[in-house]
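Appendix C reproduces, verbatim, an entry submitted by the partner laboratory led by Prof. M.T., so that reviewers can inspect both the input and the predicted structure.
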Amino acid sequence: MDAAKEIRYFSTGCGAVKILGQSGPARLDAGRSIPVPVFSLYGEIAGATDGEFLHIEEIVTRSEIYNWEIEPHTHRGLFQLLFLLVGVAEVALDGGKHALAAPAVVTVPQGTIHGFRFHPGTVGYVLTLAEARIFNRPEQQTLLAPLLAGPHLLPASPEVAARLRGLLCEISIEFNAPLPGRAISLEGLVAAVLTLVARLHLTAVHAQGPASAQIELVHRLQAAIERLYLSHAPISFYARELNVTESRLNRACRAITGSSPLEMIQNRLLLEARRKLIYIAAPISTLAYELGFEDPAYFWRFFKRHTGMTPSEFRVRGR
């Protein structure tokens, strides 16, 4: 999909800060529908994602060109971190709109519809990297997996903000000056930034009280679902992946989301089905196979059971 095409996002909501979604086009202003293009970096047509992709720039670099407003858009295969160091911003995430004051961090996994309206003179950085880079070491998976489970708004203390500012400045220097050892230096600096952001997330989770362990488990499940939902793996597989029992996983999901693990997987599959039915002009049988269904008739029954409409009816209504 290039920048001229648009998608609608049907959000189920998740994150350390609850992000409530809505059907239909994302909105930054009430009453104004906004098409949501897929970009590599904002304003640049999306192409194939390099597994080693990394980019950093100051907020002013791109936002000033667009009068300090970045319209809602999404990225394929890229994870983005926005660091608000000085100033205020209005943040649109999957249909929800939030006021944000510095110092703070916004995490944006791939597929998340997001947009920003900055106060002129806002200072900060946008760090964009391939999601594949995040799990290049096994020991990072448990710590960083929740960052991929959904968008987060994370306030930062002045001390953490100062550390982040220093690290981001170093990343910017290394990124813009290809000196010997550049790749090694960038890997270490990015790992340090991701670790600090993951700690901010853990602080936010723990602040929510005794349910923090369950919240963390649900976030890990959401990240696993994002990777594996097309495989139609059973709940027992997810429980083994997360090293917990099925009953514990079920209790955590119902306590935090009100849904069972199976319902969470089905909701993600339905979200992708809706996207494909509206914006991919292919036979429904082809889309069924792309969604991991071995039999298009089963996809038809699955979709009607959960939405009350056949795939064909939904496609007509969505256009």
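The first strand starts at residue 38 and ends at 39. Additional entries are available on request from the coordinating office.
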